[in-house]
Description:
Mean pLDDT: 75
Number of strands: 37
Radius of gyration: 29 Å
Shape: globular
Oligomer: single chain
Structural class: alpha+beta
Distance between the termini: 56 Å
Number of helices: 13
Largest sheet: 4 strands, antiparallel
Strand content: 25-35%
Helix content: 10-25%
Amino acid sequence: MGNSCSNTAKQEPGGAVHYPPLEQQHQQAKSSSVEHEDRIFAPLSLGGNTLEDPMDLVPPVRQSKGHRGSMDSRPSASQPSRDLKEAAAQRVASQERFSGGGQRISKDRVSSVNTSGSTNSPKTSKRGSARSSFAVEKDGGDNLKNTIGGRAKARLQQQPHISESGAIIEFLPPAHLEQQYHALGITAPDMPVPVTMLAMLWQLPLDEAVDRVNEFQNLGVMRVATLEDGSLWCLTSSDHLQSIEAICGEAGLKKYHEQLLDAYTHLGKVPLNEVADDGYIVQNFAHHLVGAGRLNDMLVLLTEPIWLESKLHAYGLASIVQDFRRYFGETDTPDPIVRLLLQAIQLSQGCCLEQPNIKMLREQMLGRLVAVSGDGALKAWYEHHSSKAISEMVGAAGYTLVHLLPRTASLQQAGGLHRMTLRSHTMPIKKVVISPNGQDVITISEDGAAQVWDMNVGDCVMQLAREVPLVDVDVAPGGSLCCIASQDGHCCLWDLETGQIKHVLEGHHARVNAVAIDRQGLRCVTVSEDSTGRVWSLADGTCEQLLQGHGVAGGGLGSVFDVAISFDGTMAATASEDFTCRVWDLDEEVCAHVLEGHSGWVVSVSFMGNTMDLVTASHDGTARVWDGESGSCIHVLSGHTGRLNKVRVDSSGKFAITCGDDNAAMVWDLESGKRLAKLLGHTAWVNDAEITRDGSRAVTVAGGGPGRGGGGST
């Protein structure tokens, strides 16, 4: 138990396996490195594309249709994913090609296997997991090529014990494979594993492990593929994983988790943070540590910045956040410093990824924990890593680049209001919306893209794109539908689950400036530079009402900039360049009030909670609170030094955030009209803001592009 496996392993009489010294194995891994000492994959040829990661063989979870932006299994703000049609074609081709049995693997194909790592990891979908298919094909000769399968369950060939639905009822592996079969149950779903890892798990020499893999492939238990560097990777069928879990249970699988960890660490002789990455183990340490019940060891990794930085560059921020989530989910009383460390990582990751050749995560984290460094458990961690950083800095020789260590709270601090910065859009962001699930942030930009972000991770999980600049977006109460307004005068109803366009709303004769969906999910209202508003049915996309009146008395200046709908869906308010806001009774189809008082364009309006009262924001630099019943002004909110661009009200109707050209956002108490806070940090005008449903956090967006996530009470 606990043996590691390499290409030079030898079997001695009696079945014992002899491995080279640890130093020799680590040296072999380092000598084969190309970019980083733990990232050494050669490109993989797949349908004309170049892949560097076996995870690219796992098909997408969520995809978008009908547009050039889409989703793949590894969402990234910097790398748009494949088009749905291309992915669908690959799935069909895969199913047609690989309906028969798999190809046998020759042992001599593994002679050049390296210890290797990958550069990216898939993001786990919040809307369910994919059923992966992993196939191999002949490439004219003896070379094997990988092919992406679909989301359908992997075919289980040569198996009589399968129900009509495809679910496994019973699978009895040959007696000599039973132990190895059960050990496969510790692999994560949809996660390819190298054959070298299976050799360690099964405690077999590499050539014998290849024999077992061939047998499992012929039985339909797994699919196998070869990278160009000669390394073999396997993907176990999801159905078989479920069957093994049902047979063994968590307790039965625990020993296999422990067995694998002991093999990688040579029975604890190698610290976890020093284990050489083979493209699998670093990404999946948390999975196996949880399975083995070793949460204390997991905590050691999560508090080791050097190891975390290596994983950040190899697999991305989402993989690290997933590890933290696992830890939080497995313990009722997590170590108090862990959440602070996670926030420090999220604040630091942008700088680290921009300069991948400079080690800086530790210093960045220390610089962002200065304000809380004297607190209890964090104090020991901070002092330990500070002393190590200073020692290395003093000992740096020649022209070695080192990251300076801030000694004051000059950087954004963990535990404060600022959580993370979202970067991807290439032009100014026009609006940000938090979806009803409270986890996703939707941003739209003049670059023609609408992007869905995971607010906990800071990663882009879906992209909806058009060829024209986008202007506004709103999300239906269920969170499955959004309406996006564009500069060409059209609006599109997008299905956020499938990415399809459900309806195109046509009727305006000029740019659509704003859109609002009622809380009942029945209709939406759009407003335009053609001086009108339109009421649309979400069910069939037809226009139900035309709202006219702005600009008539002002000589034709009547472009409508914003619209809001009351909580019960009976009233709408429109803000215009004619210095007024109009309140409309949608049931009676009449204008109920004309709100006058601003001395500049009225550019934003919002109803206050479950009331008919409103707040408007104007280019005159003020916001006004109005009585919706009488149309009179209650408060004038003054404080900004530039014109206002947007006003947002929390769900309770008690607080508002105003966004101005003075690079600031302000929080107001609407009952008293007093300012509660001034939010600084942006270096450009603040375009928009959004408040979470519980009123505890807000997101602001600036004209320069990036958005900022804030935590804390409004």
